[in-house]
Structures are given as structure tokens and as C-alpha cells.
Amino acid sequence: MKRFALTLTILCAACALTWAGTESYSGKDKEVIQQAPAPCEWYRAHEWNFDLWGTYAFPGNTGKRDARRGGDFGDDDRTDSDQDPDEHVDLGLFGNDRFINRDNAWGGGADVKYFFNKYMGVGLEGFVLDANDNIGGAGLGTFTLRYPIGCSRFAPYIFGGGGVLGGGSHTIWQFNEIHRGANNSNEFEFRNKQTIQNKHAEGVGQAGGGLEIRITHHIGLMGDFAWNFVSGPDNDFGMARFGVTLSY
Predict the structure, then answer these.
(1) Which tens digit of pLDDT belongs to each residue from 71-104?
(2) How many Å apart are CA 157 and CA 211, to the nearest integer?
(3) Fewest CB atoms within 10 Å of the CB: 84, 136, 228, 241?
(4) How much is the pTM?
């Protein structure tokens, strides 16, 4: 009887050890499955992207207009005592660009995008530029198409959008005729440039393309080029943009 009891005790202990070992192995097996990285998840559906970038901008038309040579000097104002003998006449634009108003400008911006799937996203963008004699900037809504290349970290993209632009400046030629001395007998005539800050907002459209490179699943680098359309070709400008991307 004692031998039977001892044998039964040993068998129960062996069964308990065997059951405990199987549970432990099963737990480890599940852990390995959970920790295994899913393939091709550098870019995901339902993803929020936050971009912060600096930019170099340049106008599409940097040409200058010469002051008009004819009709600058009208009739002599001194024949009418009630009329101001001095003249200050706007001769038109000195430069064609009415926003950046210089050869180039530096600035920065940020945008946020939400991707419905790996390929399509909508977003909001804002930027400022160091335009001539006045800061300029814009806010836009955007639509982005990207194409992650296989399981790589690279994703080229194109985008477009529209919004509102304000600030900046334009420069005009001004003709001046000034009279001095007795009976305003001494006359001085000259031209000068005058830079005027823009005080109104205008519509702006945008189109461009670029490349994003993921360093980790949540941090990346981006670089792209955007062309902006502002009230006619003389005011359009391009921007080369480089920055970082945070993805969640």
C-alpha cells in the first residue's frame, strides 16, 4: 500500500511538471509572435504626419521695367495758382514681382497631414517668407499622394492645394517735379523707387513633389519643391523645402 501511494505521488508530481512546462513554452511562443515586426510598416494607413521645414524661395519673374520716357512731364503747373506746382507721379511697377519683391527669400513653415491609407492624405500648411521690406506668408489646404517603394524607407510624393496669401511688397517708379525759389522758378525733376508694403490678401494655388525617408517608424526626413501661383505669372514663386517629419 505504501509503495502504491508513493508511486501515485510521483506520477502526480510528474504530470504537474509536464503541464507547467507546456504553459511556459506556449507563453514564450506567444511572446515571440507579438514582438516580431510586421513587414512594410514604415508608412501606415490612418497615420498623422507633422512636418517642420525651412525654405528657400525665389520669384518666377525678376525682370525690371524702365521708367517711361514719354509723357512724364505734363503741362507747367505754375500757370494755375490754385494747383500744387510740385508733381509726384506713379509711373508704374519698377519690378514685376508683387510679393517676394527681391531675387530670393528665406523662410520656414509647418504642415499637418492625415493619411486615410498608405497613399492618400489631406492636410493644412502654413509658411512665412522674408519678403522685401515686409514679411509675407500663406495658409493652405493640401491633398497629397505618396507611393512607398516596396518595403523600403523611401516614399516619393506629389501634392497640390490652395489658400490665402498676404504680406510681401512691390516697388514702383515715381516721377517727381519740385519747384523752388521766387515764383517757383527753379524746377527739379527726378525719378526714384518706392517700395510699398502689401496690405491685402490674395488667393494662392500650389503644386509640387518630393521625397520622404523614414529614419525610424516615427521620425523621417523630407525634401520637396513647391510652385506657388499668385494672381498671374509675374507674381508666382518657387520654394525648395527641407525638414523633419514626425509620424503617429
Answers:
(1) 444 444 444 444 455 555 555 555 667 888 888 8
(2) 6
(3) 84
(4) 0.69
